């Protein structure tokens, strides 16, 4: 049944409380919902109701299209000067023996391993260490672009940029310009966690504040560049903290239009300092995707990381506002597996991902980082012998 019919049925349901009906009407009319209505959705919106609203918006924006891209990850180090309580991945400098620190040549070798693979993007993010500074990253980006000019460099978050710019005594605007000149093309969405200091100070003390995170993205957008945004949810935050987080993103997006995609990140409690905090349920994960889709009316895309939430939940999420699945990746990220995700060795071939999307009646499209279409897989037939296109490397994200 078309998504609009489902929404009409909902609106005609006399049992639906008036406040929820008002939000549903706003969605039908294409009107923005308020902060209080965002909190209302979290407090009172049942899964089926939220799914109808989110799917209406999703299909209005994208129909059945579901995007994915083919990238690989480089995680320069898992050592970090910070000590975020939710981080299962980082080893503090004092535990150096358990970590890795790749040299520039080692990272370039990782890039070269993909020379004959049809990847379009390298995603670089990891821990924060003093030797990975402005000259190091500028040189790394330059050398990657010199080796493979059409490989899109999506790298580092405001957490790293704030640290390295402060060390280099340069302001955000000059720093981002320098990075763009070196070859940086997009910024991933990490490090956002929860912006509100009431929560951020408890889980991610010392690293850049929410305000600084937003300022760095703003400077990046002013250069005409694009970035993503995330939110780490399902730990000690209240619903209103999530709405506050999305509200700040929505306001910056109104100003710059530079965000492409919002990616809710589920808190996982494996092997970190918050292991006593229970994880959110699958129902809550789906509700959260749906509310993000409803609230962030000025974001084009909502993305799910299948490696973090499992393949089945990723399929379900496509009916709750998600239009982008990340991605075909191999063993090159350890961020999720180290946090207790079911997928300990996340790997999915293009064929498997296309099937995963088609199984739930959606239309798979391979995109590049900026959502240009690379291949439409709607009627695509894979050759029998089609081999998985990724190699396993002893590295991460
Ligand atoms: S979340 Fe990032 S900044 Fe925080 S400890 Fe882990 S690697 Fe470091």
UniProtKB/TrEMBL annotation:
Binds 1 [4Fe-4S] cluster. The cluster is coordinated with 3 cysteines and an exchangeable S-adenosyl-L-methionine. It catalyses: 3-[(1-carboxyvinyl)-oxy]benzoate + S-adenosyl-L-methionine + H2O = 6-amino-6-deoxyfutalosine + hydrogencarbonate + L-methionine + H(+). Its cofactor is [4Fe-4S] cluster. [4Fe-4S] cluster binds at residues 80, 84, 87. Keywords: 4Fe-4S, Iron, Iron-sulfur, Menaquinone biosynthesis, Metal-binding, S-adenosyl-L-methionine, Transferase. S-adenosyl-L-methionine binds at residues 86, 193. Residues 66-300 form the Radical SAM core domain. Pathway: Quinol/quinone metabolism; menaquinone biosynthesis. It comes from the Bacteria. PANTHER family: AMINODEOXYFUTALOSINE SYNTHASE, FO SYNTHASE (COFH). Radical SAM enzyme that catalyzes the addition of the adenosyl radical to the double bond of 3-[(1-carboxyvinyl)oxy]benzoate, leading to aminodeoxyfutalosine (AFL), a key intermediate in the formation of menaquinone (MK, vitamin K2) from chorismate. This is Aminodeoxyfutalosine synthase. It comes from Mucilaginibacter hurinus. The gene is mqnE.
């Amino acid at each position: 049944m078309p998504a609009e019919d489902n929404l009409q049925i909902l609106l005609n349901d006399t049992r639906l409380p008036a406040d929820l009906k008002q939000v549903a009407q706003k969605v039908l009319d294409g009107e923005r919902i308020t902060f209080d209505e965002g909190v209302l959705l979290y407090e009172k919106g049942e899964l089926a109701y939220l799914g109808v609203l989110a799917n209406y918006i999703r299909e209005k924006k994208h129909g059945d299209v579901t995007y994915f891209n083919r990238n690989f990850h480089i995680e320069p180090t898992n050592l970090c000067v910070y000590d975020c309580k939710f981080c299962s991945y980082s080893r503090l400098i004092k535990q150096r023996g358990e970590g890795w620190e790749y040299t520039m040549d080692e990272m370039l070798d990782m890039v070269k391993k993909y020379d004959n693979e049809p990847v379009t993007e390298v995603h670089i993010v990891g821990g924060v260490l003093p030797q990975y500074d402005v000259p190091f990253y500028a040189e790394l980006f330059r050398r990657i672009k010199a080796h493979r000019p059409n490989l899109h460099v999506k790298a580092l978050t405001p957490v790293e940029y704030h640290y390295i710019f402060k060390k280099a005594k340069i302001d955000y605007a000059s720093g981002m310009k320098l990075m763009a000149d070196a070859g940086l093309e997009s910024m991933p969405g990490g490090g956002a966690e929860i912006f509100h200091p009431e929560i951020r100070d408890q889980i991610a003390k010392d690293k850049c504040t929410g305000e600084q995170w937003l300022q760095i993205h703003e400077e990046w957008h002013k250069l005409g560049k694009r970035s993503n945004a995330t939110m780490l949810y399902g730990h000690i935050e209240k619903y209103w903290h999530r709405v506050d987080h999305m509200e700040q993103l929505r306001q910056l997006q109104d100003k710059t239009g530079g965000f492409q995609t919002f990616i809710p990140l589920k808190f996982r409690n494996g092997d970190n300092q918050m292991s006593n905090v229970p994880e959110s349920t699958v129902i809550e994960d789906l509700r959260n995707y749906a509310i993000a889709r409803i609230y962030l009316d000025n974001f084009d895309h909502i993305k799910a990381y299948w490696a973090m939430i499992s393949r089945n939940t990723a399929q379900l999420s496509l009916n709750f506002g998600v239009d982008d699945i990340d991605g075909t990746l191999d063993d090159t990220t350890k961020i999720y597996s180290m946090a207790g995700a079911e997928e300990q060795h996340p790997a999915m071939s293009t064929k498997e991902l296309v099937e995963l999307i088609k199984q739930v009646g959606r239309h798979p499209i391979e995109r590049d980082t900026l959502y240009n279409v690379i291949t439409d897989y709607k009627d695509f037939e894979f050759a029998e012998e089609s081999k998985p296109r990724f190699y396993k490397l002893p590295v991460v994200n």
